């Protein structure tokens, strides 16, 4: 049985790293001494509308209108986008190095293994039973795969830590037989801090003023459209990630909003759920209401989240309703044992080994 985790920035935030766009923008906009006049103006615009830029991918799509109206060119826009990406990569790399590998390896390996194996722990008896019934159609052990939409190597570190001690993943009892669980593949679909960063929108409809790029080589606008950027990068990461999803029997989305700039992936998942009647989807929502004494508020929230997700598809109402019965909203933090690791004082010793990227 293949379980694939789609991992977003919430994974790094859970560990205690300051990796939101808002965190980065504080660093990015504070020093302009060596910047060109173009970049200085760009940073001033960001400061004027910091709320919009808290979602930088969408903001870049919206900013094309202002660039056009102010007489800037597509080349000016791409120079600002490139400066943003280069500085973001450097900032995230410095955040990575706050996580001390050598002193936390045992905690990381146990916490990560426990987390991936606890993918059903947030549900009540009936919903757990629905997922389990579907799982029982698949034999053997569990294989855990990962599609990272992060630029950092934090997920890679956790993956590497468990890979050196795979027994932490335990075994699956299936019809009287015991089968070892294992790690599968890990794919960075948006590149890393070192290579092939993909930062933009889902498609041209999310670029507010596409005429900004009129008369320019298509490489300029393609820098802003994520599927096109992946084509430019020529590593087939998008294709590899999609192939991984196709082989999945359960998909778990952790630490990311299911927003429009990644619409392509939500459309793909809905289509796969239509094709595979035993495919279930779990979406972690840290901001879900408490599932406590009275469940009405929680149930209303989960119903709306299911509908919002299937609305990304072009499926009919009947198909959407059927798919929604296989979408499960999880408020619990399966990676709670990894929470706030960087706040451990032992983690701040500069003399000890820091995070290294897994090749």
Q: How are the strands of the largest sheet arranged?
A: 5-2-1-6-7-8
Structural class: alpha/beta
Number of strands: 8
Report strand %: 5-15%
Name the helix and strand elements from N-terminus to C-terminus, one letter apiece: EHHHHHHHHEHEEEHHHEHEHHE
Radius of gyration: 21 Å
Terminal CA distance reads 26 Å
What's the shape?
globular
Walk me through this protein's architecture.
The protein has 359 residues and is an alpha/beta fold. It contains 15 helices and eight strands. It is globular and about 70 Å long.
In terms of topology, how is this protein built?
Layout lengths: L1 E6 L2 H6 L5 H8 L8 H12 L1 H4 L2 H14 L4 H23 L4 H17 L7 H11 L7 E6 L5 H10 L7 E4 L2 E4 L1 E7 L29 H5 L3 H8 L3 H10 L3 E5 L8 H13 L4 E5 L11 H15 L6 H8 L2 E4 L29
Parallel strand pairs: 1-2, 1-6, 2-5, 6-7, 7-8
Antiparallel strand pairs: 3-4
Short description, anyone?
By secondary structure, the chain is α/β, with parallel strands linked by helices.
